[in-house]
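In the current project phase, we have settled on a layout for protein records. A sample record is reproduced below.
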Amino acid sequence: MNHILVIDDNLVTLQQINALLESDYELSLAKSGAQALQICHQVIPDLILLDIDMPDMDGFETLTKLKKNIAFRHIPVIFLTSTHDSSIEVRALKNGAVDFITKPADKEILIHRIEVHLSLSAYNKELENKVRILEDSIIASFSDMIEYRDENTGGHVARTAKYVNILASELLNKGLYTDQLSDFTVDMMTRAAPLHDVGKIAISDVILLKPGLLNDEEFAIMKTHTTVGGELLRGIFSRVPEQSYHEFAVLIAESHHERWDGKGYPKGLKAAEIPLCSRIMSVADVFDALVDMRVYKRPMSHKDACRVILSESDHMFDPVIVETFEGVQDKFAEVSGHRY
């Protein structure tokens, strides 16, 4: 059964619409835009009926906030109003509403409009899923190109994506960073993670495969893989239909070597200036590098790698993420193949 969220500050209107729709849909009722956003963070509706004239946060402001949130922007929104003003209708449609219904709503008209937009939304989701399959294939191809250049890092991108999923899921389960995390954004971060090192395609094999520490000049070149990766992904994504994970992929590629203390690169971002997806990726990336074989070092034990991660809390890593990592060490061990 499709889930409809109805937002109206008038309790009588909410009761009337509930009576009209309760036999056909699962309903959530909200008396304000703020309450509606809270509901959306708990369960994403299939469609929203939104009143325009509300105190504090009107329908236009509520719609703007919905469209700014990557998890909610694709939800079809039908505006409800008792005002017969074509200029308001035009404004609503320009701001992202899919339709406009005058109150009090006739049941047949209301259900017909809802069904039309639910069908359109389902069709769009089917198209997006096909694009997703295609893009996931592109992601895998890019990841393979990087790993084929260095057999010592085989499996790195697949493992780090699993680590990202473990950490992000646990943060969400613990009720942390709930303003940024949802089932949807966890999925987007996991999909984007394999592209974190795509910029290394531009790094010379002389540097990338050097069996020892890089000198200052070589390290400066190596660091450019972050900005190159971001630029490369922006160029690729500009040629394909917009997908929500694009934003995460660019942020992760550019910022996964930033440090919590501001001593990272390329921009020297500090603490919450670093995107959350990049802070999660950083822990996943470093852990895998520690426990895996590299041309310049032997693998570290799981226990020692965990000790390093924990020691870098509030220095290299977000302390909240490190604390969360400490509670899921066994899951990391399962992915890496190391004994816990």
